[in-house]
Amino acid sequence: MAFEMKLPGIDFNTPVFPSTRYMGSKAVLREFIWNSVRSLEFQTVLDAFSGTGSIAYLFKQKGKRVYANDFLALSYHITNATIENGTEILLPEDIDYILSPRAKHPRFIEENFRGLYFTDEENQLLDRVSANIRDLECEYKRSLALSAITRACLKKRPRGIFTYTGFDRYLDGRNDIKLTLEEHIRRAAQEFYLAVFDNGQANKAFWVDIFDLDAPYADLVYLDPPYVSLRSDNDYSRRYHFIEGLARYWEGLQILNHTTTKKFARLRSPFDSKRTVYDAFARLFKKYEDSIIVVSYSKNCLPTKEEMIELMRSVKKEVRVESFTHRYSFGTHNHKIANEFNLVSEYIFIGI
Ligand SMILES: C[S@@+](CC[C@H](N)C(=O)[O-])C[C@H]1O[C@@H](n2cnc3c(N)ncnc32)[C@H](O)[C@@H]1O
């Protein structure tokens, strides 16, 4: 391996998934989810709302044939790079090429996002890198590179969100904030390099609304949609609009110029509102009634736990509930450690 800047303490022979603080990521629940389903008989899995891809990746590691879907391009490129792809990697010369200067390229980020999230130099870098990535011939290398730049932006950004503007608020001395954006991109490229492996299966990544998905039959369907909750927002396109825009280079997205964040028009999902979510679950369960259905669920959401079980029972004879309580980390707020208020119960419902 010819990487100049190796990640300390990393074994380059073991595939490792690059987790993030993405809202709703189930990375910390991998063991719980696997222990809850391992005794079931299944060879093919659909992760229908894949987000970071952490659960699709878990099933890939367990040797299953995996189909992963999400309606965000951001998520699609991660699963295209790490679930469908099993062989292509970004070589050091690819990374150097992606970061290299070029005479002409669009300046969309520089012109539209000046002073909002990154410095002028960083915006120019993102415009240039985006153009270079689109020159890569291999689609998996493009997805690896797009995953690396979106991950780099997420890490460089204080709190990892794009719902506020300015870049000196929340500076907390974290190493992630101190590294340059270019260093973050190189680092993220290496992390995705480590994630690529072949499990011998024909895995596939999709990028559509779940109700438009036409994937092959899967023995087990894992559902982790956004939930309507009184406590937190579940609007992915608002929170992550900049990196979703970056993954598509804003193609087909309409920036709302009157907004301070310059977000694009919300990507609507029927899982977003109390009014549509019940019907959405009913249709979803109907769509996958022939598969084992596994649903991730946290407390204080709609539908309620009882309503979810009822909805699942309309298509499944047997519904099992497994629960897991864990303590949420509040970053630098050490005084909150061991506080009962940051204990969270997570559930999965298994319909057989
Ligand atoms: C709770 S997150 C999934 C997290 C994922 N399990 C993980 O571990 O990272 C929900 C995901 O559903 C996606 N989503 C929302 N509505 C969707 C729809 N109608 N079709 C497909 N994906 C959708 C969002 O983009 C988001 O990534």
Q: What does this molecule look like?
A:
- It is built from 13 helices and 9 strands.
- The protein has 352 residues and is an alpha/beta fold.
- The chain folds into 2 domains: 26-73 and 199-225 and 273-352, 3-Layer(aba) Sandwich (Rossmann fold), CATH 3.40.50.150; 87-196 and 230-258, no CATH class.
- It is globular, with a radius of gyration of 20 Å.
- The structure holds S-adenosylmethionine.
- S-adenosylmethionine (SAM) binds at residues 22, 24-27, 49-52, 54-55, 70-72, 75, 209-210, 224-226, 236, 269, 271.
What's the CATH class label of the largest domain? Answer: Alpha Beta
Could you tell me how far the N terminus lies from the C terminus, measured between alpha carbons in angstroms? 46 Å
CATH superfamily of the largest domain: Vaccinia Virus protein VP39
Look up the CATH topology of the largest domain. Answer: Rossmann fold
